[in-house]
Amino acid sequence: MAKKPTTKSPAPTSPKPVPAAPDAPSLKKSYEAFVAAALALPQEKVLPLRLDVNLIFANVQQGVQSVQPFLDRLAAELPKLPTAELAKLQTLAEALLYAHAEAARLTQPAKRAEIDAKLTELLRLREKLLLQAEVFALEGIIPESLVAQIRAGKGLFDAAQDGVALADLYGAYRSQIAGKHPFTDAQVARTAELGHALMKLVTPDGARTTVAVAAQKAQDERDRIFSLLLLRHGELRKAGFYLFGEAVDEKVPTLGARQSRRRDPGEPEPAPAPLVPVDGVRTP
Hints:
Blueprint: H1 27-39, H2 53-67, H3 71-77, H4 83-86, H5 89-107, H6 112-138, H7 144-151, H8 156-172, H9 174-177, H10 185-201, H11 211-244, H12 248-251, E1 276-278, E2 281-283
Antiparallel strand pairs: 1-2
Helix pairs in contact: 1-5, 1-11, 2-5, 2-11, 5-11, 6-7, 6-8, 6-10, 8-10
């Protein structure tokens, strides 16, 4: 009797690596890169912000674009000029945009309608993400205790915390759940964004409000970042005068200068100022 041919089971395939979520441009990251240096400024060098931050950004951008092609020459001919700092001035101007928006947000009391809109969006995303997480827990993909902890609790502040916790959970188990749920990276990130925003707007039961203290701190940080930018932009102006002489105001305008000249046809338009974040949401 002939033996039946044996068939080998296919070798298990290892899961494909899941690429990391793209690192989106962030004014907050620009702010975080400079806030320590701004806080280290002596008090006597700190000046209040009195200029339009969007005008400041446009003038810094133009000045950096004018000087950028000559940085190597400046480093060789003016070794004491901080050319490395000049190259980062546009990022410092982005930090000022963020600091200014934060100061404005904390200074103005939150509107009830704004809180309700954010909460409605968050609760919708929270419930969908949480139901899916509970399915993953039943399948043993995610520990049940982590999901149960998020489900427990009531109130607005707890819902805001849940938004952050769910985004962290989906991030921690990203490789295990990839392709097994319908949510995009943007939806998960939006859930965390809404949670963070509401945690700043909603006070836990029994907690003392710290809005006034937070607003004062944000205003001080904004003024310090502006003062740091003012000092470093002075070095950019020195470079501009060295390179362009009497044309310095056209090539490297002062922070508060308003441009009235028409650009040459072949001259590229400067990129628009980054969207200013309000309550963690990037809006025009």
